[in-house]
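> run fold Lipid kinase
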Amino acid sequence: MVIALFLVNRHARRGKEVLDDAIAQLRSLDIELLEESTDDPKRLSEVIREYRDRVDLVIIGGGDGTLNAAIAGLVDTKLPLGILPLGTANDLARTLGIPETLAEACTIIAAGKRNTIDVGWVNEHYFFNVASLGLSVQITRKLTKRAKKQWGVFAYAATALQVLIETRRFTAEIRMGDRSETVKTAQIAVGNGRYYGGGMAVAEDAAIDDQRLDLYSLEIEHWWQMLLLLPAMRQGSQHQSRWVQTWQGEDFFVYTRKPRAINTDGEITTYTPAHFRLIPQALTVFVP
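> ok
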């Protein structure tokens, strides 16, 4: 029998509703579960390290924030990761093609097909999806748990529109190797995976195992220009716009005149100056 460390965010949008179903489903698939609480996200990586010699895999039920809190422990232990998407946006699950249906997600873990994926890194903090500064940080600060629980992914759109009307551009310097650009931007985002922010795409050909980071700088002058850009940003084709500058690489530096907060997978974790880099083939996940 396979033994799994089972970490579920009971406070996730769907956590309480499906916890018992998930346990029953996984046990029926011959997976023995050693359950631990995720009430303190800061301890997730530590808990994973404590179980490294006692389990065959780690199963995490929650949203992108819960998964992000576990990256360091997963990278250190090399334990494979099974995902039960119980959050609001579930962008990592979407990138990996894992359906939100609980029974299907459990079956994917039991089937055992694995893929090795990259992770991003900024100032000692890992990320699966995107690390960004500017507009997204303001959205994160305004997006309440109550709104996410009540409205789900639509809460992102409503909060984004509110923030967008108030947003102002800032000056930043982006460096990659010998290339350097000073930009006036509303947002700089560095993507490792494909999806972020409830289904926005970093780039139309982005993948979480392509061993590259995709950076874009959103250089709109008026809030209404963002509304014109939204269809392209859903598809990842924003590089075609004159208001967007894009870069691809494995190592970036971003400097601002004063420290600016950086959002990693929906959590504010660090500040500029920022060093972004790729950690290729960093961990293994169960996929369809």
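The chain has a mean pLDDT of 89.
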